[in-house]
Amino acid sequence: MSKVIIDYNSSVVTPIANGVNIPIPTTPAGVSIATTSVYIDPANPASATNRVELTATFGYRSIVGEPEIIVRLWRAGTEIYYALAGDAFNGADEYSLVSLQMIEHAPLGTQNYQLIVENRNPASTARVIGPITFTAIAIGG
Q1: Tell me: the pLDDT tens digits for 61-118?
Q2: I need a labelling partner for 110 at 20 to 30 A (CA). Which of 2, 38, 66, 92 fits?
Q3: If DSSP codes are grouped into helix, strand and coil, which group holds residue 131?
Q4: Is-above-0.90 flag for pTM?
Q5: What is the C-alpha to C-alpha distance for residues 105 and 103, in angstroms, rounded to an integer?
Q6: 78-87 long-range Cβ contacts below 8 angstroms, 24+ apart
Q7: Structural domain of 130
Q8: Which CATH number is 66's domain given?
C-alpha cells in the first residue's frame, strides 16, 4: 500500500549559527525555541493510520561549565518526547549541533508542537545560537 502525505509544516527560526542568542534556563524551567503544526484531516481515510515525523536541529554554545541540555517535544501542552543532548564543552570545543527525530501516531485534527530546551546542570550556562529548524510531516495510508 502506498503512503500519502497528509500535511507538512516547518519552522526555520534561523538558518545560521549566531542567528539568535537565547539563554537556556535551568531545569525545571525550559524555553520554547520553535513551533510547528500539522492538520490531520478526519475526512481523509489515510489519517486513521497516520504517523507524524518530527525533526529538529539546533545549535548551542556552552558559556560556563558543562551544560546538560534536555530537549523536549510537546504536543498540545503535553510532553511526548525528551532526551539528554549531552554537553558541548569538552575542554576544546564549546559549540554543539543537536539533531533529533521522533515519530508518533497523532490524534486527528490540528496538532501543535513545541521544541523546548533546558539545562539540568545549575553550575553551567548555555545559549541557543542557531541554526534552529523544526519540521513536521504527517503520513498516512
Answers
A1: 999 988 999 999 999 999 999 999 865 555 557 899 999 999 999 999 999 999 999 9
A2: 2
A3: strand
A4: yes
A5: 7
A6: 80/104, 81/54, 84/120, 85/117, 87/62, 87/121, 87/124
A7: 4-140
A8: 2.60.120.40
